[in-house]
Design brief:
alpha/beta; 2 domains; about 35% strand; elongated
């Protein structure tokens, strides 16, 4: 962990972490190498990112037959949204990647996910799990 000192330099702390999944660690180490940083630096970044989002509220919406989500819906909540267990989930044309990325934490357990052409399937899938069918409309 890095700690700021009065002169702007960082104090470094050596730590031992037990119980990390081997495959996850290997992927993490490969990511650090790809970025040209040490595992410690990437771990610090990950910890800082987690701490920065720790106070953000998360709203879970689900157990629905159908839901249409607009940009206004996403902007109306302060925090992140989890959409789960919805038979048919649709995003309106005014939902673009910046608002989607800022407000959607996870989309999971969806039978049919309909997205506008303002979003790519790959963008949406980075925040999705257990989606049976995805369609661009």
């Amino acid at each position: 962990m890095r700690l700021r000192t009065g002169n702007g330099r960082h104090a470094l702390t050596d730590v031992t972490i037990r119980g990390i999944d081997s495959e996850t660690y290997s992927q993490f180490a490969a990511e650090a190498k790809k970025r040209g940083v040490s595992i410690g630096e990437l771990t610090t970044e990950a910890m800082q990112s987690l701490l920065a989002s720790a106070g953000v509220p998360v709203y879970t919406i689900g157990n629905l037959d159908m839901l249409t989500v607009s940009r206004n819906d996403l902007e109306s909540v302060e925090g992140l949204v989890v959409l789960k267990d919805i038979d048919m989930l649709e995003f309106t044309d005014d939902v673009d990647w910046p608002i989607f990325n800022q407000r959607i934490k996870l989309i999971t357990d969806i039978e049919l996910l309909r997205i506008p052409r303002t979003l790519s399937k790959f963008q949406v899938l980075t925040k999705s799990k257990d989606v049976e069918l995805i369609q661009s409309v």
